[in-house]
Amino acid sequence: MGENGRRLRFGYFLMPEADAPLLDIAQRADRYGLDLLGIQDQPYQGRHADAHSLMGAVLGATGRIRVFPAVSCLPLRPPVLLAKAMATLDLVSGGRVELGLGAGAFRDAIGAYGGPRLTAGDARAALEEAVLLIRSMWDADGGGVCFRGEHYRLDGAPPGPVPGRRIDVWLGVTGPRALALTGRVADGWIASSARVPPGRLVDARRRIDEAAKDAGRDPADIRRIYILSGSFGPGGPGGFLNGDSGQWVGEIAELALGYGVDSFLYDGDPEYLETFALEIVPAVRETVMRERA
């Protein structure tokens, strides 16, 4: 259990380089017992495979691991079609899909692909609208969905398919107002150690928790997913997650015990995927369980 009482979950962050053995990596993560596979979604990267198409292939090639975009680039992914795509993947996979969603950080790259170049405020407002719209499409009882927002409008859109279970919506955001948005409306928060180092987690957690309480929500219901960037082996550059397996175990356990993180995705060389899954993960679970006892 993490500090918030949730069972710890572990996974891999897959960079969808089109020339990489993507399905083999995903199958290894599944075979090693990892819980989650997050697939980066940057459609404007010419060397990347399409994340959502890859999700379908991964779900067909694996049997148990849960798969999600980390995170879907909203400006290039119309939310009504996101809702349909995620519901479809969830149904055909037997309920192994979650939705990671982001406002889109690279405006020029998005614009080069024909997407809108939104200000930070507009991007955040569009993200909030998208969460509400997507859930409306999933929760509709058969009648047409009407939505009137500043960025999105639906005029009696037929909903469906309806997912077989509640799909979580996790937001990959970093700014103070976007963190508050996470606390108000999201099921989870996705952060990367490369962009949100441990020293910033306390403030981010406070903003999410306060916003959740103000909205009448229990902060413990919001998952905290942390993408771990680092390197293995002695004699490395030092610093956070740059060292041997023992250092990784200690630092991940501290994230769970002291910062309330409950889900961890290894973002690194897949050559060390077995080490992470079969050595580090069990040791972290044991350490956290022992400390909590």
Topology:
Layout: E1 9-14, H1 22-31, E2 36-39, H2 51-61, E3 66-69, E4 72-73, H3 79-93, E5 99-102, H4 107-112, H5 120-139, E6 145-148, E7 153-157, E8 169-171, H6 176-185, E9 188-192, H7 198-214, E10 223-229, E11 231-232, E12 242-243, H8 245-259, E13 263-267, H9 273-292
Parallel strand pairs: 1-2, 1-13, 2-3, 4-5, 5-8, 8-9, 9-10, 10-13, 11-12
Antiparallel strand pairs: 6-7
Helix pairs in contact: 3-5, 5-6, 6-7, 8-9
Provide a concise account of the structure shown.
The chain has 293 residues and is α/β, with parallel strands linked by helices. It is built from 9 helices and 13 strands.
Per DSSP, the total helix count is 9
| Overall morphology | globular
Largest sheet: 9 strands, parallel
Share of helix, binned: 40-55%
Q: Strand content of the residues, in percent?
A: 15-25%
Q: Please give the radius of gyration in angstroms.
A: 19 Å
Named CATH architecture: Alpha-Beta Barrel
Ends: how far apart? 10 Å
Placed side by side, the strands forming the largest sheet appear as 3-2-1-13-10-9-8-5-4
> CATH topology, anyone?
TIM Barrel
Tell me the number of structural domains: 1
